[in-house]
User: What shape does this take?
Amino acid sequence: MSDPELPKLVLPGDYLGAAEEFLPGRGTYENRGRIYASLLGTPHLDARDRSIRVEARNGIPEIQEDDLVYARVDELKTAMAICTILSTGTSTRTVPGAPEGTVHISKAKDGYTESLSGEFAVGDIIVARVLQAHPSVKLTTAPAPLGVVAARCQVCHALLRIGPKELVCPRCGHTEHRKLAQVPRSGAPGRNDGSPP
Ligand SMILES: [Zn+2]
Assistant: This one.
């Protein structure tokens, strides 16, 4: 038994099949013996009971291996940072359900990390890559472009700025260290003296 020719994407009101052949499932409705999609999404046929359902496609980002995600650090444990995934790098939409992701201490940065509290602080926003998406989300911030992208002063909660070496609080002058996401240094001041090679 093969699927009828179901399109990849249907709009509300699109005809899916005859009610005498199929059962109307989730995301569909029946009208005068015909089954229609009730939402935007992908239709599926369940071969067991011949029901047709439509999986909503609202642009809800699924977290997948190798994705870049933005996450907030919620808790630092001895061996891992526990984060809430806020959005994926490929979608500006937030990830529903605020799934948890963890950065193991061995994946915080290249080389040995003595303590996660030396690299992250609770409330930091990090950009991380998904190492594993199921059953739990495991993240890495080890590669240079990954790590903390926004951090607040642990003393006064102002947003920290990148100083010459460490992060500096523009309000109270407190300096802090993080495993920062390194932005390509093309336009950065300092080393570039503008001389041709
Ligand atoms: Zn401060």
User: Anything to note?
Assistant: The radius of gyration is 24 Å. DSSP finds no helices and 15 strands in the chain.
